[in-house]
Design goal:
44 strands, 7-stranded antiparallel β-sheet, 1959 residues, single chain, alpha+beta, elongated
Amino acid sequence: MARLADYFVVVGYDLDKRGGSEGQGHILQRFPEKDWEDNPFPQGIELFCQPNGWQLVPERERPSFFVSVLTDINSERHYCACFTFWEGLDNPQLQKAEASEVDEDEVPVLVQPAQVFAPKSLVLVSRLDHTEVFRNCLGLIYTVHVDSLSVPLETVIGNLLTCVIPVAGGSQINESPVCSLNLSVPQALACDWLLGCFQDQPGQEEREESLRTITLGAGDRQVIQTPINDSLPVSGSSVAHLFRQLGIVNVLYLFCAALTEHKILFLSSSYQRLTDACRALLAIMFPLKYSFTYVPILPGKLLEVLSTPTPFIIGVNSFFRSETQELVGSMTLDVIIADLDGGTVTIPECVHISLLPDPLLQQTQTALSMVLDPELEIADHAFPPSSTQPSTLKIQDKEIRAVFLWLFGQLFHGYRWCLHIIRIHPEPVIRFHKAAFLGQRALTEDDFLMKVLDGMAFAGFISERGPPYRPTDLFDDLIANQVERIRQEECSPHKVMNHIKELAEQLFKNENPYPVVAMHKVQRPAESPGHNEPKNLAIFPPLDDVTVQLFVDHAAAKLKTAPPMVKAELNGMVPSGPPLGDIVDRHGHVLANSARRLEVVRNCITYIFDNKMLEAKKLMPAVLRALKGRAARVCLTQELNQHVLQNRAVLDDQQFDYIVRMMNCTLQDCSHMDEHGIAAILLPLVTAFCRKLGAGITQFAYSCVQEHMVWTNMQFWEAMFYSDVQNHIRALYLEADGGELSTSSHGQQESGPAAGGQELLGALELASEQSRLWPTLSKEQQSERVQKEESTVFSQAIHYANRMSYLLLPLDTSKNRLLNRSGIGDVESVSNSYVTNSIAGSMAESYDTESGFEDAESSDVANSVVRFINRFVDKVCNESGVTNEHLKALHTMIPDIVQMHIETLDAVHRESKRLPPIQKPKLLRPILLAGEELVMDGMRVHLISDGREEATGALGGPALLPAEGAIFLTTYRLIFKGTPNDPLVGEQVVTRSFPIASLTKEKRISVSLSMDQFIQEGLQLRSCTFQLLKIAFDEEVASDLAEVFRKHMHKLRYPQHVQGTFAFTVGQSGKTLVEHKTKDKNQSIKTLSKNLVKSAKRTIGRQYVTRKKYSPPTWENRSSLQSELDEDEISVSEELDQGSLTLSSTIRSSDRQTMSNVVERACCRDYQRLGLGTLSNSLTRSKNEPFRISTVNRMYTVCRSYPGLLIVPQSIPDSTIQRISRCYRQNRFPVVCWRNSRTKAVLLRSAGLHAKGVVGFFKSPNAPSAGPSQADSTSLEQEKYMQAIISSMPSYCEPSGRNTLGGFTSTHMSTSDSSDKLRQPKIGALMKQVMGGKEDVPGTFSRGALGQRARVISLSQPRVSGKARNPPGGKWGSIRGSGRLSAYNPEVGNRLSSKESPQPNGGPSEALFLRQQRAYLYIIGDKTQLKGGKQDSFQQWEVVPIEVCDVRQVKNSFKKLIKACVPSSATSEPSMTFHRCLEESEWMCLLHRVLQVSVLVVELLDTGSSVMVSLEDGWDVTTQVVSLVQLLSDPYYRTFDGFRLLVEKEWLSFGHRFSHRGAQTLASQSSGFTPVFLQFLDCVHQIHLQFPMEFEFSQYYLKFLAYHYVSNRFRTFLLDSDYERIELGVLYEEKGERKNPQVCKSVWDYIDRLNKKTPIFFNYMFSPEDEEVLRPYSFISNLKVWDFYTEETLSEGPSYDWELVQRGRQERLAEEVPDKPDTTTPKSQRHIVWPCYDSRSRVVPDAITKLLQDLQSLEAELGLPPEKWKDTWDKIKANQRAEAKLENRPSFNSSLLMSSNMSHQRRSQGVYLPESGVGSSINLAMDRETSTTSTPVAGRPSTSTLYSQFQSTESENRSFEGILFKKGALLKPWKPRWFVLDKTKHQLRYYETRQDKECKGVIELAEVESVIPGTPTMGAPKNIEEKAFFDLKTTKRVYNFCAQDSPNAQLWMDSVQSCLSDA
């Protein structure tokens, strides 16, 4: 029983102590005055009566009631029910004022009221929480006082204080309320539990059945309902209110915050609501109990409490909102504020609330919304049910609590399976195995559950609910019996709701056992005292304390005499519920254990113990992979267990190694918690497996598996210890009880926490049974059991001290592993798992272990281990009740155990050093180039796999990476050579290398190698040849050596001067090898660079006359030339500034020589070929030539970066040139670089204009100028220069003058003109794409500029008359399908005649681009530069502003491209796929832009306009565009010689800054790598793909250049201009004498040499057409990723250093030869070709290469002199052409490709139809009519109109074709003819020869009657068998045919027959 009220207190306003603004309260009276023994009076009640402070008010307020909660020092909660009313009082302020009025005349400013009201509180203090009862009782007392009832107040209060009610468990039948008397309230009593039962009035002796009421003797009666089970909280309807105030999500946040121990603050203006909200939050936390600060109503004076660092739940009145916020703000801002009135929850940014794990959170929210808002679910129903009201508040409250109960049921189910019972007597001691619980629930990563299990509330939960023998409640029942039901209902919300309703019903019944009873009768005041109350309301009287005390004493005496009521004990065994494992299995959370993997693990272990080491080695990688899965790890431990006999398993060295590796791999994936219990099962095994090292010395496996975090985790050891103790104690009682032991004591000991259901169940059952029997035992038996248990624990503690010393003391005790770990149980472990025999030895040697320090060191290790074990022993022994004597004994024992173990280990360590070291793969030496030398010898490294999946075997095939080998640094390359770790491919060699000059990024990384768990330092090296080396240094490589390696690499990558690059140092350097053992860093690189400078100085001035490739014009009169030059030079230098740069004197002295060399340069040869100018004998300018070669720059004084000789207009003198050059950036003025041989239009290049020159340049010449200023004169000169260029064009001089675009049909126009006119619209469209319409977003590259898919309009060129020669047309990149814009429509006509017609897509109309006349010169300029210049309609030039990609864009794009093609690590993110990264790099967009501009320029040149490309500094984009234009327009540049010439002229002579853009020296390091030239090569590659028959060189040639332009192997691409090359003396030495014939200084020489040997650079499909202009498609959809970026050959490294690859192949062949003697087994001819390992083109060469190779080998076998492949090829081609005349094969074969005169055949045969809309044959058939007529027909531009040279044969369907002999008409001979059988047209046509385009005759198949075998007639061909003849009978005549043999004849007959039958 318990008192309803402990104390009754009257608190009033303290008039004596009132200070400034705030008064104080004081206790007027309290009853009883003496404290109860069991319950002292709580302090500070006066603060809690008026939490807002004691204040006087001018008007009377209504009485108020609320309950505060105070917590005492024993964590007991006291409920203080405060009833406050207001009493009148004469205003104390006025009295003061009257007293002082005598002296002062001033009237008080404020008019004070005469009467004020002071608060008075009646307070009831109780340990029970019956809010309503308290409200009624205090209300009654107030009513008695106000209404002056006859009952004395003392009686009412006396009755109240003596009222005793049962705590809980009222009878559940309607009989007399027999209640157990229980004065001591259970200590764990939480806050707000309604307690009640029925108790009669305190004066009656006998209890009447009918009365279940209490009365205070004032005619009142109250019923108190007792909760059936007091462990369940009582909530009334507070939970429902809380959810209504805050909403579901907010309350869930608060719920999770409270469980994860955050600070929670409630705000409301109502006190009662604050209490209710706090009570509700605690109620939904059941079965957990809140154990931190809990103050539902915090008085304003105590607000500082909020700054406590501990978690809390506190309520504060909104009145203090601002003060609260200041306080909370000044703190760490970690308080969550819930505003009940506003319905908001504010979570600070710094607070992270872990929410429920995912499916649970969703299910809980769904369930809550179904309870609170049942209408939500049916809101969308067409026929909603008539009423779906939510339940009443009280019921709803229980439903919400049921949801949370259900939630905890799901969270904690199975928790009892993870309890360890470590003592049963005298009190059960129980521990929870957190790791096992999380592991089995697969929730180890879940933040929320981790925090809850670590929290105080859960610890309380375990200590309260852990014991196996105790009363059970609703939650125990849920966990035990309903888990299965919860699991099945999970997915069906309605079933969940039914379950929740059932639980809610039980909760409701518990709170309201008698819902029918409602006999409340409580007096209320007659009329509520409001503001109209008479002022003379009586003051609450002082009470007579004696009377009240008498009541209290009387009740106490009566209680003593009453017989004690014994409450029946309801203890029982707590059921555990279904075991965790099953549930998880059904959930499917257990990792999928593929039976195959487990089989592999089992087999491997069997092999190891059967000593089949080779088999085991092969399986090992697969086993290590399988051990990532939990099932395989469990399988491993089970298998190993079977091989342990009597706790011992002795192995030999190799077995030991393998077992240790597997154990390490298993442990490596265990977290430090060991949630799956794997480490626990391995613990006994690591002390069982061992090997003999020597006499009496044994090494156990534990010495090799120590480097795992789990061993330093205290919680792991505790869990293991408790698990073992539990098993031993269970065994103890099983022995004692039954005498028979279920399993041997050892089996028990080894079963870890995951040992499974049966045993755990046994332990708890046993404990429960023992607890039940405990009271029945005698004292002796009890103490005996206690002693036995204690000694069991003690012996286990000794055992564990030993075990821990095994795993914590390192083999080499000089290295303290514990100290290195930076705190035990640290987050990241450094795990080393392969320290078995020898590595342990080799590692130890690498440390200096001098004898002097050993003792100190080892004692240090010993101390730290002893400290760790001591901490462990203290903790577990205190928890499990070990006696102090035993604990002391343990502490003295531990240092001895550790010391003993250290001594054993020293011996083991000594012996282990003597073991032979593990065989590591021997280091393979790389093959070096001639002149390439090693800078650092091989360092053992591991090549780690990067983001490319091919090599790792992820895409099928073996795992070639990771590989072990060595990294070599040479003067030229960085080379890795080694063998794969995977034993299946262990005999393959992996090579990865790149030129040191191409290194773009170096980054330090730390790598964990999969086999050996060392974390190694490593490097990630990225190269711009699209290679990545991720290496981890082996442990044998000292870290300082790795540093030396890095430094040398940097020195080689960024030499001080370009002369330090490999191309210069090759073959000259001294010995630069860095020895490994020596620590001093090698100095030879400095001396090397000194030598270099010396040798370079020697070469300067020594120029050599080159062998002439093109014979230059003869110089008859050299002396006159020289004098002319000298004069010229003087005149130039007068005009130049003093500071202008000239070349060093060495060059002047040999000026003649230089000049002859200059003429030899590529530029001159090309200018002569193009007829742009010659150096005639006396340099007289022949006036009929429009251009001349100017020597103005021969000393590189005008422009440093231009070549010495330039083409300028004939009419412009050199002096003008010098002035003009100043207007352009870098002085790069416009010069001619190419001329169209047909239209004579020229291509010019220059840099962009200086900003100041722009506006002047575009000024209208007619504008009045202020005076002849300098700028004006230069702009005039510029204009003159432009005019001179325009005048040079024949079209300008033609009499037709400026051709207007109107009247294009007029007949007097020449053919070329009309064709030009017709091409015009195409250019307009092109221009618009290049410049972009206004609506185009920048960056989309005007994709939609043509409405359709932005393809360029192409028009056929009409034949103006049948006989007029067709001008050579262009060729488009591929044959397009139909669906283009119509080829001819009135709008195009309008556009051509320049009528403004609106564009269909809203862009600017074409006429903007095509003005009244065609411009003679188009200037391609940069948009940003050309602002402000107005176009003048009378000028003959026009500016095309385009957006240029600047160098920064290219650089960034390239970085992203490399990362896309060669990612550094594999990623599974969908946003990081290859194609997504490629798109983001925008590389393709840049290519598109360059190609688009180039095609535009080609078009303009082809229509006869000249073009000047004037972009940026004139050496990046300009060079790209100009080179591409020449390549597309002039077939010569598509040959070997031509392409070389193009690169030499446009890139090298015109000063592309190769060294600067390639960051080749230290100076340019900061500018970074910008691959402008690579971009150009990629564009060429794109064109090559679209026109495979137009290039003499192959794709490999382009890749070769792309590789070597950054490799620095050749000098060709070094330095930034001809000027720099001459200064270094490298320009003209290229073909001079060579000291070393192996070393090629020029890449071109190398290519020539190689091309003679092998056809690797040759394109067999080369079959050019004369004067072919190429127009490739440039849209991104047409561009392909260059395989240069993605391909790799790991077998031999990059194939671009040809001699290396050849030597490597020879060596490999030589190795394979010795195996020949074994001739018995047939050798398979098959060879597996692996992606990324083999070079496919070498293993599977194309047919022609293969035949040429066979030919070579045959020649060698027969001893014939080998013939050059080119000669063989040319012969074959010649034969082919001859044979083609009599071709008789009906199929298309490769030989056709060789014959250039059949080039028209190419397209129709499908050689290149990548994007043709429909199959080519259909297109061609439809186009035949179109192409036979000579005028274009309106419609789509068909395939035949795309190629003007294609004629009717092209578009026929050839079902069958070949050569047949046909007998002519009477007396005519037999003749061979080319016959074509056409099914579509149903005819048999014949031609003279295959190439013939005109049909000689047609046999209509409709007229054929039969086809029959024939007989030879007179004059038939000889030597042909009879069956080869057949006849074709038509209605008109019989045709006699003869095929070349009988099968052929049969074929013809069948084909014709099938045509006839089809018809």
